[in-house]
Here is the input.
Amino acid sequence: MRGRFYMVHYRPNGLDSARLGVVVAKKLAKRANVRNLVKRIAREIFRRHREFLPAVDLVVRLHAPVAKATRAELNLDLLQLLQRLPRQ
Here is the structure.
């Protein structure tokens, strides 16, 4: 699934809860502090909503440059993608 900034790949994992992996390419976020910020935002959204997510393995990738993006836009984009996950 693709949002404005993030792309989410998912696959059922057969466990009791969801797991997360985050990938942020240097091509889209040149500075290390920006890459780390994007990853921290993704992990925090996942942590807050993990209990409501289906049992899937998630890989969250950045697919658009975030130079002009605000934290609120990044949060909203990932939240909308997580809400679109199929429920079992």
Observations:
- Residues 6-83 form a domain with the Ribosomal Protein S5; domain 2 fold (CATH 3.30.230.10).
